[in-house]
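Quiz preparation item.
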């Protein structure tokens, strides 16, 4: 009799024997030879040997099962799917066939089909592994509530702690935090070293508004958990702490593979304005796991450090969340048309401000005014006002430009660009004396354009 175990192990109850390589299909392969090839890792030859057995007798259960396993281990997933499908056509009530077919579907990225196969396996033999696999498939299919219900249905007093933890995780994913809490307490009471259970319990308590209790439970867990497993508890504590940096450093030192610790450390430094200090932990996090949010943070750090080329690269790797950062980097690299295209579909004030500046620099002053005027009127941002006035000057609307610039200079009396644009507006209005004074003020504040104009 055969059984399928968790993962991809499908073992024969018959002992495996040492086998010389097959001499060719002309010599009928025995089931023992096929099993030996499978055990030795000669998956391609094992598959041929199992095929030979089936060619002689298509009702050999062991050969169907062995063929599917050999094909899977050889990476031939579609052939493995067909092999297990064929097994079930001959033996429709075999648990092993449905369970292993579900595993193939999971590897093929077809969780819906996997869930259907696992559901049939559960109906034939309600094993722990089948329920766990069913819940995993439903979770991957985006059916969190169904996954939780499946594990609740499969729960019994003799279930393992791993099953109970999976049930709690499924309940949490389904939004049933309060229902997950007693399950987790049951796990940590039986196994005080269950780091995952402590971490999820603290997360649930914090999300329920019980931050102090969450921190106390984390401390209880840290008093029990040893070694590398402590890192995730330290990370959770850091995220709830008023002083997270030492905790994040300790977590990362314990487990350098815990990229989230390095990522949050970099984020904290970035938010504090220390882009240079943020770079090392962010790069470490990216090397460990190049997640989109890490790439996005790296792009922001490089922008602040004046490295638009690196910012452009990492913003691109961040995907849609990094689009605005990529547009900023493209603008700094002189790729203005590309930057403008990247901004399409985005509508935050920062996006509109950059879009207006790009339109202005591309000589599309009328469009720039259309973008910048409502933005300026909504927030009276001085920098937006300077660009709006520059667009108005470019269109010859000098009086409107002067009104905006006078308002800007009341807020930022030392803004060189505002004084320069005011000088241009006053020149356009034929108020030469006032224009010269404005340009001299701009030059004194460092405007090279004003100095050049005055030097003519």
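Solution:
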């Amino acid at each position: 009799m055969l059984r399928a175990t968790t993962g991809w192990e499908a073992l024969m109850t018959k002992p495996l024997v040492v086998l010389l390589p097959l001499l060719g299909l002309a010599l009928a392969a025995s089931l023992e030879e096929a099993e030996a090839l499978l055990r030795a890792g000669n998956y391609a030859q094992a598959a041929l040997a199992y095929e030979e057995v089936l060619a002689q007798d298509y009702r050999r259960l062991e050969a169907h099962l062995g063929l599917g396993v050999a094909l899977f281990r050889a990476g031939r997933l579609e052939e493995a799917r067909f092999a297990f499908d064929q097994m079930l056509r001959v033996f429709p009530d075999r648990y092993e066939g449905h369970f292993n077919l579900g595993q193939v579907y999971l590897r093929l990225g077809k969780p819906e089909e996997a869930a259907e196969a696992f559901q049939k396996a559960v109906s034939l033999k309600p094993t722990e592994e089948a329920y766990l696999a069913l819940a995993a498939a439903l979770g991957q299919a985006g059916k969190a509530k169904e996954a939780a219900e499946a594990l609740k249905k499969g729960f019994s007093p003799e279930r393992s702690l791993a099953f109970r933890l999976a049930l709690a995780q499924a309940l949490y994913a389904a939004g049933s935090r309060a229902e997950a809490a007693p399950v987790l307490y049951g796990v940590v009471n039986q196994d005080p070293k269950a780091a995952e259970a402590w971490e999820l319990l603290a997360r649930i308590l914090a999300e329920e508004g019980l931050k102090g209790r969450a921190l106390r439970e984390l401390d209880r867990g840290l008093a029990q958990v040893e070694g590398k497993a402590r890192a995730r508890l330290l990370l959770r504590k850091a995220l709830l702490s008023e002083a997270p940096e030492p905790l994040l450093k300790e977590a990362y030192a314990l487990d350098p593979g815990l990229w989230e610790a390095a990522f949050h450390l970099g984020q904290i430094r970035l938010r504090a304005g220390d882009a240079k200090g943020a770079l090392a932990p962010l790069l470490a996090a990216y090397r460990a796991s190049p997640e989109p949010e890490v790439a996005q943070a790296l792009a922001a750090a490089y922008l602040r450090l004046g490295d638009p080329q690196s910012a452009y690269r990492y913003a691109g790797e961040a995907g849609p969340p990094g689009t605005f950062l990529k547009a900023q980097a493209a603008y700094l690299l002189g790729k203005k048309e590309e930057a403008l295209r990247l901004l399409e579909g985005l509508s935050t004030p920062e996006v509109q401000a950059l879009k207006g500046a790009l339109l202005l620099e591309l000589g599309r002053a009328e469009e720039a005014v259309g973008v910048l005027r409502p933005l300026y009127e909504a927030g009276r941002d001085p920098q937006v006002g300077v660009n709006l006035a520059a667009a108005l000057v470019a269109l010859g609307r000098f009086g409107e430009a002067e009104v905006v610039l006078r308002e800007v200079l009341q807020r930022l009396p030392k803004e060189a660009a505002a004084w320069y644009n005011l000088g241009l507006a006053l020149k356009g209005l034929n108020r030469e004396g006032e224009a010269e004074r404005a340009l001299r003020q701009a030059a004194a504040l460092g405007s090279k354009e004003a100095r050049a104009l005055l030097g003519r």
